[in-house]
Specification:
The structure holds two protein chains of two kinds. Chain A is of the alpha/beta class. Chain A is about 40% helix and about 25% strand. In chain B, strand 1, helix 3 (about 65-75) and strand 2 (about 80-85) form a beta-alpha-beta unit. Chain B is built from 15 helices and four strands. The chains are: A alpha/beta, B mainly alpha.
């Protein structure tokens, strides 16, 4: 996606060895990251893995304890300059509930010193389909509308880079799909987007992914690269009492993980030969088939792996 | 780049936002208007630094014309009201202990006899002196009793017992407040107290509220300068301050008949200055406090010394030296002097300036501190 023309351009975000501590807690551990123009970069990881902190570091809202880099060509410590040129959407809805939709947009337009404020706000309301409700207090909007308004307000000053912190948390599937279509439209115009999420379907919509756990970046690349990188082989088993089977298989040293997906049991391991031996001795009521390893398998694997590391370390 | 300096457009954006939010917060708005009225009426009418009609009990084993005359002389001072005649010393002790009367006057059994004989008998006055404020002026009045009471009785053959006229007289001119009315002092001073509590408290919540609602992170991600946010958030409260000052002025004329000798323009100028001072304090608290509870606590910590050491209740000039230094550092001390001078003394600018510059200096220093403590990151 970033291909040939991207190689000629500078990365939008380029950070090396970022570290951040909150007291004793190592929240961001040696983060290296490049994001290229026009890229939708997905940030994944369990709760408390340091996604929000990483995003705040990259827009200069937090100062790194060590390491550094640039965002839109500005040093991370020049937070004010960075924030003027990016659009940052906070995890928690952070526009003013006691102002109307129009008043919120007006405020943003004034704060960014945007020309033709009234026309711009009118156009934005039109595009959102909120012209008729522009006088409504934002506090009375539904979650989906709030999120659309937040994106519109974040985009009002036409930033070249969007940092979106779990923008679709608590939003219904239809609104989520519309939102992602909008993100792809924006990316097509050359805007880069860093978006954190918990949803696998959203992860698959990203051009590139990074997986964080306990402040460490465990995998990075396109979805295919991330999957290939873990060298994980997966089989799908159907049959009776998969939960019990899952427990028994997990005791086998060759089996790295077992995950029940509805009617199927996904069994993954790193050594295909050893895995085949294990699966060959299953009772005949189970059907076994080779299965492409999916992003979700990899993420669950990464999470359990980092958990083990973390517990052995501490 | 132009946006590196103070931008009027951004500042105006903040001002408008604050006005709109304040307008929608009806309860707060009602409090801002209601609070000065309630405080003014309550304190203006209730507080009296020169208490009158204090209850007195008289212990007199043999009531006589002299004791009746003494009682009526006490009543006529205005400071006392003889409420009860007691039989014994025992009853007298109890009534003081229970706080029903503040004074007990013991007339000895042979008072009249001794008086007539010219033995100059003593009256014993027992005072509940646990509150020095109550006993001060009234004790002065009671020590005048030998000169005024029994004037009628000490005539004819008893005339030689009447007190001589003193060797010299004292003329007292009570300037600025000839009748010694507490409200003349209280109403202008309440202006400062009311403005301090409401202005500091309102603005101390201004930033902490954004922080607690999560909107601060959004504001920080916008290209706003600290001074634009801080001063922009102060502007609506300058108007609130004017509304409060106007309410107090109207009430001062209407209910309390306090003169405004120095003119309305001076009152408003002084108010504008002092409102700005308090807003600067409030906004500094706001940028220091992490949540609204801390903001309220800091507000009270600022307010208490201002209330008690500013000359609002007790004169600054009567404090020990170290406390006076502290008092002189409090803006309310200077505002009290300034506003009393404007209301009662009609001082001109050169008389007022010594009270004005400390307030100005304080404001500039505090605003500088606010600008310094405002964090542009979430660290």
């Amino acid at each position: 996606m970033t291909g040939l023309n991207a190689a000629a351009l500078a990365p939008v975000i380029d950070v090396h060895g970022l570290n951040k501590f909150f007291g004793e807690k190592h929240v961001v551990n040696d983060l290296n990251l490049q994001i290229w123009p026009g890229e939708i970069f997905g940030f994944l990881g369990p709760n408390g893995s340091g996604k929000t902190t990483s995003i705040r570091l990259m827009c200069g809202l937090l100062t790194p304890d060590s390491g550094g880099g640039t965002c839109l060509g500005y040093d991370l410590r020049e937070g004010e300059k960075i924030r003027r040129s990016i659009g940052y959407m906070t995890q928690k809805f952070s526009y003013w509930d006691d102002l109307t939709i129009r008043e919120n947009l007006d405020f943003v337009a004034r704060v960014y010193n945007l020309p033709d404020r009234k026309k711009l706000v009118d156009e934005t309301l039109e595009r959102l389909g909120l012209s008729a409700r522009s006088g409504q207090l934002v506090g009375s909007l539904s979650g989906g509308w709030k999120q659309r308004l937040a994106l519109a307000a974040t985009m009002l000053h036409s930033p070249k880079l969007l940092l979106l912190d779990e923008p679709t948390a608590g939003v219904d599937p239809q609104a989520r799909r519309d939102f992602w279509e909008e993100l792809h439209r924006l990316a097509a115009t050359g805007i880069s987007i860093l978006v954190s999420t918990h949803y696998m379907d959203e992860a698959e919509r990203c051009h590139k992914l990074a997986y964080l756990a306990y402040g460490r970046l465990l995998a990075q690349g396109t979805a295919a690269e991330v999957i290939a990188g873990q060298n994980l082989f997966t089989w799908k088993i159907t049959g009776p009492d998969l939960l019990k089977l899952s427990g028994e298989l997990r005791k086998m040293p060759a089996v790295a993980q077992t995950v029940v997906f509805g009617q199927d049991l996904h069994v993954s391991g790193c050594d295909p030969a050893a895995m085949r031996d294990v699966l060959a001795v299953l009772p005949p009521e189970y059907q076994v088939a080779v299965q492409d390893t999916e992003l979700e398998d990899v993420f669950i694997y990464l999470m359990s792996l980092s958990q083990d590391n973390f517990t052995t370390l501490s | 780049m132009a946006s590196d300096s103070f931008s009027p457009t951004r500042w105006w954006g903040v001002v408008l936002k604050e006005f709109l939010q304040l307008r929608r917060d009806r309860v707060t708005f009602a409090l801002i208007i209601g609070l000065p009225i309630a405080q003014l009426l309550l304190f203006g009418f209730a507080i009296n630094a020169d208490p009158k009609n204090l209850p007195v009990a008289i212990v007199d084993p043999n009531p006589s014309e002299f004791s009746r005359s003494l009682a009526s002389a006490l009543n006529s001072t205005g400071y006392f009201k003889v409420t009860r005649l007691l039989e014994s010393e025992e009853d007298a002790k109890r009534t003081l202990l229970r706080g029903r009367e503040l004074f007990v006057i013991n007339i000895p059994a042979d008072f009249t006899k001794e008086l007539v004989r010219g033995h100059k008998p003593d009256l014993l006055v027992e005072v509940d002196a646990s509150d020095p404020g109550v006993s001060g002026q009234s004790l002065m009045a009671i020590s005048q009793m030998p000169f005024i009471a029994l004037k009628r009785e000490l005539s004819g053959p008893l005339l030689p017992l009447a007190p001589d006229s003193p060797p010299f007289g004292v003329q007292i001119h009570r300037l600025y407040n000839p009748e010694g009315l507490t409200r003349y002092n209280m109403i202008p001073s309440l202006m400062g107290v009311i403005l301090t509590i409401t202005m500091v408290m309102m603005t101390s919540l201004a930033l902490t509220r954004e922080r607690e609602r999560g909107t601060m992170e959004n504001m920080l991600s916008m290209p706003l300068k600290p001074l634009e946010v801080l001063s922009g958030k102060m502007v609506p409260y300058i108007f609130i301050g004017f509304i409060q000052a106007t309410i107090i002025l109207i009430a001062a004329r209407l209910f309390f008949q306090v003169p405004v000798a120095g003119g309305l323009a001076a009152v408003y100028l002084a108010t504008m200055l002092y409102v700005t001072t308090n807003l600067a304090v409030g906004i500094t608290i706001s940028s220091l406090a992490r949540n609204q509870l801390q903001a309220i606590q800091m507000t009270i910590m600022f307010f208490m010394p201002n209330l008690l050491l500013s000359g609002f209740l007790y004169s600054v000039l009567g404090e020990p030296k170290w406390a006076r230094i502290l008092s002189e550092m409090l803006p309310l001390t200077h505002f009290n002097r300034l506003i009393r001078s404007i209301f009662l003394k009609a001082g001109d600018f050169s008389d007022l300036w010594p009270s004005v510059w400390p307030i100005l200096l304080f404001t500039v220093l505090v605003m500088f501190l606010a600008d310094r403590t405002y964090k542009t990151t979430l660290d």
